[in-house]
Known about the structure:
nine-stranded parallel sheet, ten-stranded mixed sheet, TIM Barrel, Immunoglobulin-like, 3 domains, alpha/beta
Amino acid sequence: MLYGADYNPEQWPEEIWPDDVARMREAGVTMVSLGIFSWARIQPREGEFDFGWLDRVIDLLHAGGIAVDLATATASPPPWASAAYPELLPRDADGSVFWPGSRQAYAPSSPVYRRLAGELVTAIAERYAGHPAVVMWHVNNEYGCHLHADYSDAARDAFRRWLADRYDDIGALNAAWGTDFWSQRYGSFDEILPPRKAPYSRNPGQVLDFKRFTNDMLLECYLMERDLIRAAGATQPITTNFMGAFEPADYRKWAEHVDVVSDDCYPDPNDPESFRTAAFSRDLMRSLKPGVPWLLMEQSTNALNWRPTNAPKAPGQMAALSAQAVGRGADGILFFQWRQSRAGAEKFHSAMLPHAGTDTRTWREVVDLGARLAALPGLPAPQPADARVAIVYDWENRWAAEGSDHPQNALDVTAVVQRWHRALHRRHVQVDLIPAERAGEYDLVIAPLLYLLRESDAAALTAFVDAGGHLVTGPFTDVVDEHDRFREGGFTTQLRGILGVDVEDFGALVAPDAPAAEPGERVAPFAGPFGDATGTLLAEELRVTDASIEASFTGGRLTGRPALTLREHGAGSARYLATIPDEAGTQALVDHLLTATGVEPVAVRLPEQVEAMRRGDVVTVVNHATGDVAVNLVGTDAATGAPVDGLTLAPYGWAMVRK
Ligand code: GAL
């Protein structure tokens, strides 16, 4: 179990470093991520490297038994780089430059950025590939975090090349983008631009491909660095830190190329439900590389600096969220950062070693957690079979479904997926977040808002139902192909065989949070075996061809029409839901589905504020409630081996029990 933090020693005089190492040992730190923002110190000028200080700090850490996750330092080019090569600066869709003076001011597709980053990475990797302290490589930092897309001339040139590679022939691009609309037909790839600011709605195919391109440019930067590290002879695992359900980067594509998935996660202590959002991120990370433990690369020990209100964590909350990560598959708990900065934009951000010193609650909790994690024996790797339920979560679908000019322009795929996840989480059901092609590994698969549906994914969902799986899908599902074009034959063309349903109309409802003065229906009440529920945003008109009606709308313009259909198909079943249920409605539906499909929770008779999760034969329970909770788990304590026959958890208490 790794324990540690980002370590930024260059922010401190060298005399402090031995104290850092001594304190790290006291806290049980086993690894630090070093040099993430050190480009300016490692390479003070082009062609000139200064490794003396880095040698000394790495040797000091090594002598102290602290391993190093060595960064490639490419996330923040120093001022000399943009002064000499202003063309490496990124631009927004209006053409405004993102100037230096913060971090991440580089265009990912800029050839000069890539050259400079490559030279830096090679120098670092050649020097430290064989250093015994270095156990992992940390490429760049949070790719795309602040700069979700770049529209610069470098991006323009790269976009043209990327499109030429993808389509080969301009006619194929014209067909894919439907450019006969509004006289957008291109004569050659050289006429194409990124979707910069335009008078009105932009071509949806262009916008979708630009999202793919943006992801691919970031990924190319990562791959370039990874390959240079390997070319220098390094054999340690390589990672780059993800950010949960971050929109611009399709982490499923990235996960194939990292040796270990690592995640940065900052739940808001002011939100009493943020532990469920954190659980979602953990489940997503575990699902990205099935069967392989992941790392919580960054979290905070206490308050942040970047929310409007940066509340402290409650006593014990940091450890509870750490236990949650371990229970959901993490083999390391790390923080941003080791020692609180004394200057710069993050000086109020908490750290393992607070500016207020060691006589602090934060420090005591850091030391306690280090000891508790160190006492854990090796835990089993998360098993793909731990979860019997999956929710389909697909980045390309998200990009397309949230595009503009739709019947409902307030759709948030992640918010809907997270609502389903929360409802299952409240029932202590373990969930994976998967691409549709993995449906066959589960008993129950929920695929909400699968607007962009590839033929291969439709085939996988069909095979899943044929073979006995239970599918729940809809609304706004099976609407377009991978170019965001309608298919011939109406909607629901790929899944109507298993659903027995066609969608006639999407039936947009006014968003629940729209200004009060906006006229129109806001909710679509419906009722079924689960009782009464409320639908939002869409209330689709279905044509039921071969399915039974499980629930119907009970109010508004669709009164009496189907809201949820069910078709027994093959050895399984396929449900289509015509609306987006609110929180309570989603919960009611989940309860109904769990009963109907017989899916077992990880633990029974637990309050909603206690979460239970499975990692092989180890069940972790964490109490997020404000009072003591009795838990009826039986087994042995995963740390001590002592028998467990029921236990009581104090607020933010946690336990790991081997079944
Ligand atoms: C992360 C970043 C860290 C630090 C942290 C603050 O996004 O990787 O460098 O800025 O946020 O919460």
